[in-house]
Request: fold
Amino acid sequence: MDVIFILLPISFCLGLLGLIAYLWSVKSGQLEDLDTPSLRMLADDPKVIGQVQDENTKLQ
Amino acid sequence: MQENLNTEENQFNLKCQHCGIDCKQQFCCTGCEFIYKMINSSGLEHFYELRDSFIKKDRKVAQPTQVSYQHFDQAEFIQRYVKIDSKGYKNVEFYLEGVHCAGCLWLLEKLPQILQGVVQARLNFERAIIKITFDQVKLSQIASMLDAFGYPAHPLNQQKEIQAKEEKMALLRLGVAGLCAANTMMFAVSLYQGQFTGIESKYALYLRYLSFFVSLPAFLFSAQPFFKGAFQSLKLKQLHIDLPIVFGLLLGFFASSFNTFMGREHIYFDSLTALIFLLLAARWVQTKSVKRALDLSNLLYSITPKFANLYKQGQIQKVLIETLQIGNLVQVKAGEIIPVDGLLKSESANLDLSVLSGESRAVKVSFNQDVYAGSLSIGQQILVEVRKTGQETRIAELLSAAQDQSSKRAPIIEQASKISVYFVSFVLVLAAAVGIYYLPQGLFVALDNILALLVVTCPCALALATPLSFTLASAKAAKRGIYIKGTQVIEALTQVGKVFFDKTGTLTEGKLKVVDSFVIGDQGYIYDLVSQLEINNHPLALALSEHCAEFKDSQKDKLVNINYIVGKGVTAESFDGHSFKIGSLSFHSELKIEASAKDFLNKAFSLQLSPVILAKDKQLLAIFALGDKLRVEAKQIVAELEKSGKEVVILSGDRKEIVLSIAAQLGIKEFYAECSPEEKLKIISSQKLKSAMIGDGVNDAAALRASHVGIGVHGGAQMCLEVADVFICQPGLGPIKELFEGSQRTMSVVRTNFVFSLFYNVIGGSMAILGLVNPLIAALLMPVSSLTVLIFALKSKTFKGD
Reply:
């Protein structure tokens, strides 16, 4: 069980990675608007053949 | 094909094809018709499937204004509002009117598809701010397109950079605290397990040291706000809940560290870091809800018109107000607000000064007389020579005087903070007693028990009670259009003893209406004449044409040569040679008025109503009595306020007779009339009882600031909303009553939560004194107490949601 001497710090470092990801999302302003993404997701684009493609639309 | 289907349906449903409100035709207005056609021609009919999801009730429906946005292309404008991002694209942010449903969100983010040159459009739905990334297209084209879809665009004042940084720091601290709390809890659980099943001392020692190191970031970084708060509290000798918290944190942490290095068992790192995390989370949620209210008032404030029509050599040019020089000539169209202080360079003008003085009647100004920024030009286009701009105008001075008040105002201390001092002293005494009692059993035993006592009595639940209750209450209030700008405001509202009403717009409807009429002959014929005669922006004309609206297009007798005479009335002729005149009593000097009409006139005068007389060929046809009607619910609400123990007072800039009449109708005993903004301020400042001021004009701003609670109401001058503690976006007095009652209910929830948290502290403290507390018990007590407070706050009735 002596292995936990190494495992515990490693698990903490994994948590640290999570924190870094969180920091990145805070810095890039993702947490500024928490309400709009939930509405945005509900708007499916209807199936249209030959629709113009860009970053905002998904061609289904 | 879809269009035909819809038309068929419509004959039975009678709803506007575009916005969905009930109407008699396919479209409720040309605006909706225009937008409908735009949407269909762009292939975006999917909008109508999304339209009704998640409608915001307090938003206006989208309407195009067809305003020209040419001035958006000016160099100064671009320099101010357009930023270049790292990829070389241009970025701009607009506040949009009319955003009210998920369909709007979908539609607006499709802008790249609609307008060539727009790369991306991201809408923040809650704040109605759209961020547009673009390249080869003109700003005016973007704004015009947005307007065409029904979302008039306004440029935004840049958000303060410092605020954004502070928010990010807060989130950072929260994240670090969360990581530390989770990990120390993980280590602690192993240790608790060890208490039951046995654990080798080398592992236990290791876990304790790890707990110590992992809690360091939480303690040194995340907990900083609490230390700062406690330090401020000591420095200013002001009470704050941070004091006992810091007390518990410091002693708990040092004692736990001491135990760790001494190889002893009792450490409390998990409870302490969890405490830090919980409190930071509660504060962040609270800050967000306050921010929502502040945000909205800032937004509304920032969209006040920044442009003026510069008149140079016969040409009109739209320029930023800041670029105006003294001596420039500015053209102000009918119904527009004068943007500067200056001299009138037209022959005469009819101005509405209500924003400045509270006077609800139009004031006539002659050539070369002073006019002030903020006044509205009724009925005609005028020229003004610029004398003072920006911060030097009278309106700006009024506002800064109002803002000065804020620094002198004593902050309202939360109930929780008041309790904190007694709390700390009591716990200290108790801790000393515990120490002395257990000393005979050994120094370490005594220390352990003192530590247990301090951690267990740390006021977690107490500190959570107010932020949680406030956050939930203000969210509910916001749904009703009541925006509260701070925690202490709710408490302050319950302390108010006197309520001051500004007359116009709060107790009354705020605009002139036809209260009564006296008619000789065919009513339909007369109303038709009135509709034809009264087609301008004068409040009297608006009231009359609204009253006679049904007969607008019947035109039995078509009138020509319609002549508008400033300050007097309107004359016209009909095809068959009859002459018509409508206007004030003085306009009809040669008219003969018979007895019954005279009675009507006298009655009108006694009720402080303005009579407007219609005559045909110098014969009396009708008399209309116009006035500012009292709101239907006014009498009831004034009575209810008084029943709840508050005195109701009128504080108005309007004429004595009018205020007297209204006070009499409502049964109000104390009232002030013809008050200048300075007088209003003086009256409020000299009050002995805590007072709330309700107002809507800049003339109320200083008084609003000076009062215990300042309430700005619907339709108020934007600057007024900036200065108030609460602002209400719905018209009517109902929200005001709800504001007071809701605050009362919220405070009782807060108090009950205090009782709960004190209860837990008593139990925990007693157990600690008896030597029964160990880290496990402390770790259990804290979440239980916090959950109780949270669940109770969630379940309670504070503000009525609808």
Observations:
- Residues 1-11 of chain B have pLDDT under 50 and may be disordered.
